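Example 3.2
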Amino acid sequence: MTRKVHSTVEVRLSEEVADALAEGRAVVALESNVITHGLRYPDNAATAHRVEDAVREGGAVPATVAVDDGVIRVGMTAADIERFASTPGIPKVSARDLPVALARGGMGALTVASSLIAADLAGIAFFASAGIGGVHRGAETSMDISSDLIQFTRSRVAVVCAGAKKILDLGLTMEYLETHSVPVVSYRSADFPAFYCVSSGIPSPCRVDDATVVARAVENHWALGNHSSFLITTPVDAAEAVDDAEVDRAIEEAMVAARRDGVRGNAITKYLMRAVDAATQGRSSRANMAVLISTARTGGHLAAAHARHLADLGSPAAADAPSPAPAAAGMAHALPGLRG
């Protein structure tokens, strides 16, 4: 199914995704950057399939998003995943790159920020990612802030992730989200997680243990007229996590080495990540895989709860409920526009 959202932009839904959306079933968007900019073939293809399987285990339909032949593809077949995984040199496409990537045609791997654009255009309410970008250390002089945070202020999508990497300034990242009124809820955890570390040491603004409450909160956020994302964090399993003190030491040592070697700009992230991986003797890479799977599964679980909540809002029982609150009535009226 192809949906033309503008005279020049097409969103092409897979049959499975189109059917799920039409039937009100849960769908979770996934970034294609995981396929093309991480592991080598065929491990990258196997990982993509494992992530999609985890979404299904959670109760939702996976929708990996990418640029393909000049259109936004939402939902990839097994053959599509193999093609992307085995094709070298596919460019990474973030939010600012998307207009040119679509104009040129060809293939492009979407990041968190550009995936949110695709999900919003397709009418998909949930997106899952291992981790998000944030405010970089030293941003007070470099102004290095991930476009993920900017896109959170623009896309009406619930983002399920394991927080952000410790190489970032997580305190400033949380301040940025608060300044822009992006809700941050930690699912069954008291702290804001730090990717492959269970905790960043920063208490979460809000802990919620009930998936139904999360679903209601997500829809309330949009019903109140907000046009931004809703961030839901879920930590990696403690058995798979990397010790936070060990990661902190590795980062501090790598920061000193980076300054000595003149590493700066976009190169600093990869430099620090390699340093952490070396210091942990590869445990951080294994934890990374665990985070990919766990966030996808939780994303599917929460998306399914959200789909049930929307079904309840539209059910005869919900319509006949005594004395509906004005806000709830307005929410139900707004739903088709929000997710269409």
